[in-house]
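U., I forgot to send this yesterday:
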Amino acid sequence: MTGSQSTVLWGVIGGLSFLVLAQGFVLITGESIDLTVLFTVAIGVGLLTVACSTLLRRWLAS
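Result:
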């Protein structure tokens, strides 16, 4: 797998992980979260994960 594919995959994993945690929050508390805010934050988490995985690529590969 190339470096860019790996980086994008880490971003997808980060964004989806946030969505799973948000769903757990909704199920436990019963509160609703605005979908616009939810997906905006999920995209932000995904982009932050891409940036971090780019910087830490060698460490993640070992």
